[in-house]
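Q: what sequence does this backbone want?
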């Protein structure tokens, strides 16, 4: 993958160059100290992925991003943001304008190969590699309908508009080194009883068929970690509802739980505002983001959704028609207080290198309400959520996933599909209707079921 860095700091450009050059899958092709120089170099060096600073002289990161997308909309852009409120706000604007993802700059660059710098290096290599592969798959996907395969169409959708600050709802007031080296999954002791063994790696033929076993059994061996660095590609599939989709649960859902990562802010801005104010059950969301970012994301979603959206706090009573966003750097779990469901925040070690972790949330939900759960796994890198999804299915709940064509990276949903535990695969624009049909029983709102490759 051909990678370019644009940053006014020579120190930052230097360590990004060293990191990229150290990966056998990446090729460092150029650097620029500001946006104007970057745009002049673009056609000459033809990068596939650009690591772009948010704050620069002469031309801001936002204006540079607009110029990059005007020249070549297929270039994947990763914003390099400061871990501040101002940096987070600009990052949200960049995501709405077409940036694929973001990285937060370490607070100190004095020790470039240790501590937080090592974490940033790991994250940069992982994200750039995954996004570069995703760019290739999108260009090659000529058989996918234009309205779903085009990143530009997705970016100009209602989700991008609300992320930029428009479309305020009238009822509301305007106020995350390769995967093979990952450590073993660590689960808080209180949830180990509900944690199934990892689903097995499924052979190619089975992945293409996407035909889950009947009856479903919790997998007992294998691992899903190989899905971490790149999206799973099971190829275009013609799904048959009767044969290839898990039977709907007979247990009425008491919770809607969501897991999302890369591409999540834009996806959530389309999904949550499309649900009604009187949605009958609580919603809990894990979005892989730092703490400052999750608070601002919750605020922005709250301003633009019909229902209340808040960053979860310790002891929150989980109420119908309210969405709770897991705060960055803390696991969000569900606990019982008599007949009442409550939110709890725990500081146990990261799971799947993530905190908050989707697996932790999903498993805690099973411990609290057994199979009375509807889970949605959306766009994201890695496999966080796949083990928790298996626990939900084993308990009798349902898991639906976002399709590959509308996902920025199809790692998390692809891992669920590869394990054969999904109840359906849907484009982003149909997820809310599908959720309503399963929670409320309004079949007239059911969206189109699609194959993993995005075909209708």
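A:
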């Amino acid at each position: 993958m051909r990678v370019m860095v644009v940053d006014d700091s020579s120190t930052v450009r230097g360590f990004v160059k060293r990191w990229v050059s150290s990966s056998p899958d990446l090729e460092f092709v150029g650097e620029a100290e500001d946006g104007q120089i970057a745009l002049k170099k673009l056609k000459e060096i033809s990068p596939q992925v650009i690591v772009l600073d948010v704050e620069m002289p002469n031309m801001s990161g936002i204006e540079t991003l607009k110029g990059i997308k005007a020249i070549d909309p297929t270039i994947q852009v990763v914003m390099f943001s400061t871990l501040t409120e101002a940096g987070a706000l600009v990052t949200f604007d960049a995501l709405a304008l077409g940036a694929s993802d973001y990285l937060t700059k370490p607070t100190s660059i004095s020790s470039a190969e240790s501590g937080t710098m090592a974490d940033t290096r790991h994250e940069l290599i992982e994200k750039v590699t995954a996004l570069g592969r995703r760019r290739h798959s999108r260009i090659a996907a000529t058989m996918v309908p234009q309205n779903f395969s085009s990143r530009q169409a997705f970016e100009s959708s209602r989700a991008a508009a609300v992320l930029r600050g428009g479309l305020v709802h009238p009822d509301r007031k305007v106020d995350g080194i390769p995967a093979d080296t990952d450590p073993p999954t660590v689960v808080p002791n209180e949830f180990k009883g509900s944690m199934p063994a990892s689903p097995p790696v499924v052979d190619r033929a089975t992945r293409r068929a996407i035909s889950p076993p009947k009856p479903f059994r919790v997998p007992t061996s294998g691992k899903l970690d190989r899905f971490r660095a790149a999206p799973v590609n099971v190829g275009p599939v013609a799904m048959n509802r009767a044969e290839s989709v898990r039977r709907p649960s007979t247990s009425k859902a008491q919770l809607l739980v969501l897991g999302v990562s890369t591409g999540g802010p834009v996806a959530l801005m389309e999904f949550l505002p499309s649900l009604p104010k009187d949605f009958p059950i609580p919603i809990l969301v894990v979005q892989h983001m730092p703490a400052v970012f999750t608070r601002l994301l919750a605020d922005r979603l709250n301003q633009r959704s019909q229902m209340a959206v808040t960053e979860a706090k310790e002891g929150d009573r989980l109420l119908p028609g309210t969405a709770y966003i897991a705060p960055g750097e803390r696991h969000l779990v569900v606990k019982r207080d008599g007949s009442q469901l409550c939110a709890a925040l725990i500081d146990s070690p990261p799971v799947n290198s993530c905190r908050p972790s989707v697996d932790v949330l999903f498993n805690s939900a099973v411990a609290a309400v057994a199979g009375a759960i509807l889970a949605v796994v959306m766009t994201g890198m890695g496999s966080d959520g796949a083990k928790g999804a298996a626990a939900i299915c084993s308990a009798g709940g349902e898991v639906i996933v976002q399709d590959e064509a509308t996902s920025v990276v199809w790692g998390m949903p692809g891992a669920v599909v590869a394990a054969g535990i999904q109840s359906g695969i849907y484009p982003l624009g149909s997820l809310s209707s599908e959720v309503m049909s399963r929670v409320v029983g309004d079949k007239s709102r059911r969206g189109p079921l699609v194959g993993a490759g995005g075909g209708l």
